[in-house]
Amino acid sequence: MSKHRVWQLFIAPGEEDEPLPIDSSPWHNGRIVRIPKEHWQLILNFAAYFDQEKTQKLDDYSYAPDNNEYDYIYASQEELESLLVFMEELNHQIELAPPLVPEATEEIPDEYENEEHIRTLKAVASVFRESIRLQQPFRAWID
């Protein structure tokens, strides 16, 4: 029996054919960031050691809690800027940490190097930056 993979998605506002302003990676295509949910949760669990309040905000921004029709996340520029600073600090901490996935398990079948987790955070950060730049909400949901 195969297990259905669950994904965390973020979509930046803006024109669909305009790519995110970051280096190419397997974690984004166009304006869409798509991360295996278990890896996003792993990052959030790691982040909680450094700042539980900001980690909770990242988790809150992972889906539209009011179940609005288009999964819009309405965040203030100040909140997003604060999270961007936290995400940069988190990238540095992940870089210094032992492997977040030391070996594959049934729950986390991929042995991604920490650099891949940093790349996922950078992709999510680019969505937040585009939301600030365009002064529009981004979209997020779990699929």
Annotation field: number of helices: 4
Morphology = globular
SS strand fraction: 5-15%
Rounded radius of gyration (Å)? 15 Å
Structural class: alpha+beta
Outline the low-pLDDT stretches: none
The count of DSSP E runs of length 2 or more, i.e. the number of strands, is 5
Mean pLDDT: 94
**Helix content range of the residues, please?**
40-55%
- The end-to-end span amounts to 20 Å
Sheet with the most strands, sense and barrel status: 5 strands, antiparallel
Q: What is the chain-wise order of helices and strands?
A: EEEHHEHHE
Written overview of the protein:
The chain is an alpha+beta fold and about 140 residues long. The chain is about 45% helix and about 15% strand. It has helices spanning about 35-50, 50-60, 75-95, 115-135, and strands at about 5-10, 30, 30-35, 70-75, 140. It has a five-stranded antiparallel beta sheet. Helix 1 (about 35-50) runs antiparallel to helix 2 and helix 3 (about 75-95) packs antiparallel against helix 4 (about 115-135). The chain is globular, with a radius of gyration of 15 Å. It starts with 6 loop residues before the first strand and ends with a strand.
